[in-house]
Design brief:
Membrane topology: Multi-pass membrane protein
Order of helices and strands: HHHHHHHHH
Helix content: over 70%
Subcellular location: Cell membrane
Number of domains: 1
Distance between the termini: 33 Å
Largest sheet: none
Number of helices: 9
Main location: membrane
Strand content: under 5%
Radius of gyration: 18 Å
Organism: Lichenibacterium minor
GO molecular function, one term: amino acid transmembrane transporter activity
Number of strands: 0
Length: 205
């Protein structure tokens, strides 16, 4: 692929990914309540979901994706439900940070976060609009081969990593000020509200 196309794609993706939306709200709220390390499986799933959308479009399956709208609607509402569960847990979370007592519990938590991120990413209408509607106007999809697809995916991961880790670091910086139970409780409630708002945004779009 040409460098111009990749640059245009990267800039458009950075603007889209950097603007507040359900994924950003879920990410920031999670970091505020649990810290950066705990959110890495969630981030990986967000990026994987966007890679799936990108692959569908490059493979010429965007029409099929629109045809099977009911399946994607089911994914979307499953993501909404899980975001609401996370919001409820954040609202009632303890104010003192607690480490997982067993590695098995930590592993289960990581897989749950990964599943939540994948549901949010695949069911996010913002992602669907960007890849299905906007991407073909930025890149000549008809002439993208395997190497071009790999370049697009690599560019996508680099851009999303920079943007999402920037949001995560900003949230982590804010979290350092949460030094007592009262402020931690407020942060938990704010995070829960943001998570519920992200669920509502996904549901109504």
């Amino acid at each position: 692929m040409g460098g111009t196309e990749l640059t245009v794609f990267a800039l458009a993706l950075a603007v889209g990914a950097g603007s507040p939306g359900p994924s950003v709200a879920a990410l920031v709220s999670r970091v505020l309540t649990r810290g950066v390390r705990d959110v890495l499986p969630f981030l990986a799933a967000l990026w994987l979901g966007e890679a799936v959308w990108l692959t569908l479009v490059v493979a010429g399956l965007s029409a099929a994706a629109q045809t099977f709208g009911s399946a994607f609607a089911a994914i979307r509402y499953a993501g909404v439900a899980y975001l609401l569960v996370l919001a409820w847990r954040m609202w009632h979370a303890p104010t003192a940070p607690a480490a997982d007592a067993a590695s098995g519990r930590a592993e289960r938590q990581a897989w749950r976060l990964f599943g939540a991120g994948l549901l949010v990413s695949l069911g996010n209408p913002k992602n669907m609009v960007f890849y299905v509607a906007l991407l073909p106007s930025l890149v000549d999809i008809g002439h993208v081969g395997v190497s071009g697809w790999a370049e697009l995916v690599a560019t996508m991961v680099a851009v999303l990593a920079a943007v999402d880790l920037g949001w995560a670091c900003a949230a982590a910086g804010a979290r350092r000020w949460l030094v007592d139970g009262r402020t931690m409780r407020i942060a938990n409630r704010i995070g829960a509200s943001m998570m519920a708002g992200a669920a509502a945004a996904v549901a109504v779009r």
